[in-house]
Structure formats: structure tokens, C-alpha cells
Amino acid sequence: MGILDTLYNTKYLVFLDIEFQTIQLKGQEPYILELGIIIFEHNSDKPILIDHVNFPLLEAENLRLLGSKYCTVTQKTEIEIKKLEAKLSININDINSIKNNYELIEFIPDKHTKKLLREVIKTNNMALIENPEKTQKIIDQMYFNFFKLRLKGKFRLIYDEIIRLYKEDELVIKRRVNPYNYLNTLKPYFNDMTLVHKEGMDIIAINKDLKKYNVKIENRIFHKDIAVYNDVFRKKYNTAKLYESYLHLKKDYINKNIELKQFESKLEKIIKEKMPIIKAHNPLSDTYFTIFIFLVMIKYYK
Question: Which domains, ranges and CATH numbers included, belong to the chain?
């Protein structure tokens, strides 16, 4: 019996993570952009499928701008995208940055911060900003409001260039799949699986794409969400972020448990054939982190 066998009664145990592309119609709707997935079959600790794929960009829709933090691209493309992202930002410690980018203030999701920055511009008084660190964090959230149809002029040109860079990146091109064909490839697993993931957006995006590409799953998706342990992580480690949570558990539990440590060592070697560098926000990396968070929490916090 393998380390995973007591965790599910279905034929397959599926771990996945999704980086989303979000479109805005009446509300905001998430779809799959990048999918990382690792599948195990009952009675085996060796994965039968390891994948990191890209679904086509929904360019024709009112698509939210992609952020470099959540995109897995070549280093060259990442650097170019970050340079463009800097032109879509406001530095709270620089009066010229605030003034020169005043058109971006409307995208800030907090009305009090909007009012504050407009008053700073009007009075030329930086002393009005009492808590720069907190204010900067609020300002940075405006990136999530950069939808295609809302950006105008020079900002729309920046949007278009970031989308182009991502779409033409060699890694993205290499990973791109036909969604209908790929979802049908996953269909046999989805019909008899226990799915482990983090946060409900993954399930929403999967269902959106199944509907969009007319792929029908016979059975209801049975899933386990490791986000149920978020409070445990916040209390013990002061964070519930996926990568940080994994690092804490690796130090406190995985490295001290022979079975977990041996399983991680074997899996890491297999994973690195597909993904030489393990890092946060790469969906295959995040899937890997999810596996070990799930194993530790089931074993020690059941």
C-alpha cells in the first residue's frame, strides 16, 4: 500500500492548480489559462500523468490584463512584461509618479484612497499620506481592474503589448493545447476521481471550460479543498499562502518523517523532468506544493 492509498476511494487521485484568465461580462468569470495537474492511480505512488498546459487566450472577450507574477514564461519575456507593468503603476513615495499616472487612479478599488491621491495632486502635499505602506498595497490592487475595454490610449497600447508578449512566448506556445481535445483526455480521470486543490475558483474555472467546450462529465466532481486549513496556517505560521505554507510544513514535518521525505524525493525527481525550476505561481509547482500540504494536514491535523 502506498502513502496515498488511504486518502481516496476513487480510482484516481488528482491534484491540480490553475492560473486564471478572467473576463468581465455582467460579472467576472474565471477560465483556465495555465493548468498544472498530477494524477495518481490507486495502489501506486508514481504519477500516471504530469502536465502543465495552456488554454488559448480569450482575446476577443473583455479580458483582464495578465500579470507577470502569475504567468510562466521565459526570463526574457518576464523582464519585458515587468518593464511594461511598471508603466501601469503608481509609486506612493513619488509625487511625479502619482501626478503622471493620475488616469490610473480610477482603477483603485478603494474610494478613500482615490480621494486621497487626488487631494495629494491638488495640494502637492505628500504629508497627507499617513501610511504609505498600507496605501501602496491598496493601490497595487488596481491591476485586477485592468480589463481590456476599460483601458484607453497609452494604457491600452501597454495592455496589447503585454498580451502579445505572453501569447508569443516560446514556453506558452509549446504548452498550448486544444481545450476540447485536452478536456476529453482528462474525462476518464474526472469521471472517477478525488480532486485535491486550493480555493473554489479552480472548480468554477473547470466547470466554465467544460461548459464552454461542451465536454460533459458523467459523475459529480468529488473534491477536497486544502483551503479548509487556512486558519490553522494563519494561527501557526501567520500566513496561508500556498508556497510559504509548504516551506513551513517541509521544515516542521516532511523533513522529520521518513515516509514523507522519501516520497517527496522520488516525486521531485519525476517532476523536474517536466519542470526544472520549482517556484510559486507556476501551476505545476503549486500542484506539487498542494500534494504535500494535503498529506501533512491529513496525517497530523485530521
Answer: 5-56+176-300 (3.30.420), 77-167 (no CATH)
The residue with cell 495555465 is: 34
What does the DSSP 8-state code read for residue 91? -
CB contact set of 75 (below 8 Å; sequence gap of 6+):
none
Please give the DSSP secondary-structure letter assigned to residue 144. Answer: G
Residues 6+ apart with CB under 8 A from 274: 50, 51, 52, 284
Q: Checking DSSP bridges between strand 49-54 and strand 193-197, what pairing results, if any?
A: unpaired
Total-model pTM: 0.93
All three cell numbers of 89: 503603476
Give the model confidence (pLDDT) of 167-201 as tens digits.
Answer: 999 999 999 999 999 999 999 999 999 999 999 99
Strand partners, 63: 23
Burial class (CB in 10 A: 0-12, 13-18, 19+), 279: exposed
DSSP secondary structure code for residue 220 in this structure: P
